[in-house]
Amino acid sequence: MQSRGWVSVVGGIVAVMAATTTTLVGHPVTDTVTGCRAAVADVRDAPLWTLGVQETRDALADLVALEAQLTELKGRLIVHGREVAIEAESGARTPGHWLAHATRQTRPVALAAQHLARSLESHPEVAAAMARGQVLADQARAICEALDALDERADWLDPDQRARAVAQLIGYAGEFDAKQIRVLGRRILEVVDPAAADVHEARLLAEEERRAEQQSSLHLYDRGDSTHEVRARVSDLHAALLRTMLHGLASPRHVNAEHGAGGYDRRADKPTAHRLGLAFCELLERYPTDRLPTNDGVTATIVVTIRLATLEGGDQAAALSTGERISPGQARRLACEAHLIPAVLGGESEVLDLGRARRLHTRAMRLARLVEQPTCEHPTCDVPATACHAHHREAWARGGTTAKHTLEWLCPHHHRQTHTTDTVRRT
Fold first, then answer.
1. Rounded to whole angstroms, how far apart are CA atoms 397 and 317?
2. Among candidates 99, 85, 152, which has minimal Cα distance to 122?
3. Which residues contact 59 (CB under 8 A, 6 or more apart)?
């Protein structure tokens, strides 16, 4: 075989044009790989300005198909490598581990290639379609997963029914991406055995839900800069619930109420990661403590210890029962919506006497005030009172009373501003 040094890509087929003195006389696979590499290298400096729009589109589409063909060939070589033990001399555990080390790939990438190779070995029809450039690598993974699930949960299918399922899934690759094929793959039984499809899907979803519950996890990592990194793995259902709540709290109207007019970047199609992070924090602050489980009559509660002088406007930080410290402004802001329990401490901070929480405005007071004042009471704000915090006009710690006429609606933004500047501009 000879190589001219350039590649003609037509319909996903690479033709290595022979025109140089290089002669390849090895195995057809190694000759093809060597010739392809040489041909592609030779067009590295070829000018592209002569390519028209349609030619560029065709070349890109054919290159994607070519990638699929080469990936299938790589998979066959990995399977063959297992048979001839290419990893033996290096001491690697599998051909995938050898491939990662020898080609300087990350281990997950190389092992994923090995996993795909094994899947294609089990499903030769999919491998053949991939070798023709009709199925991409991620589509092949989705199709093989669907067929594995079908073989495991619908073992009553006859060969003709299974062949129809394979053909249908491969046909999907011409219309849908891998994510869509995964969804369609869950319902492939409707094509070959409609009567059993609902039972099959229900069983499949139940198993996925059980697996999701077993794999659910959450980790909190202290970054050492007054922030924590939260990593969680939850089911699709709970991810949808969380996403819905966060998007509601990160909506333009709510963000402008929280951070002032102009706080939301309307150029972004979706809430930014920063906005969603703030929404998550607000969700934690807003969650009603009476919905939390109790232990010996006490709900899961964080105690904020704050000096009376700080509550009245002082500058001393407050301490949390978990060991962290927060700024006085943050403590005063939280105090407006929290139960305050007066405590008398001895010289060693020993609790000598503990009073009762009796400071918050009642539901009746809030409803009555809502009728009188339906919005935030800052003169520049019209955020609905239902989205506001109940603030004491005269600080309760300074002798202010808890009554309807002492309740002042402040949106989160102006409430934070009030406790930061210690000033209120009333209507």
1. 16
2. 152
3. 9, 51
Q: What angle do CA 245, 246, 247 make, to 5 degrees?
A: 95
Are 17 and 6 contacting, i.e. CB atoms less than 8 angstroms apart? yes
Among candidate residues 202, 187, 185, the one with its CA nearest the CA of residue 148: 185
d(CA 153, CA 206): 13
pLDDT digits (tens, 9 = 90+) for 248-274: 888 765 555 555 544 545 444 456 888
**How does DSSP assign 355-412, residue by residue?**
-----SPPHHHHHHHHHH--B-SSTT---BGGGSEEEESS-GGGT---SGGGEEEE-H
Residue 349 token pair: 């901070």
* H-run or E-run covering 344: strand 343-345
Distance CA 235, CA 219 (A): 16
Q: Residue 381: is it exposed, middle or buried by C-beta count within 10 angstroms (0-12/13-18/19+)? A: buried
What pLDDT band is residue 58 in, cutting at 50, 70 and 90? very high
- The structure's pTM equals 0.51
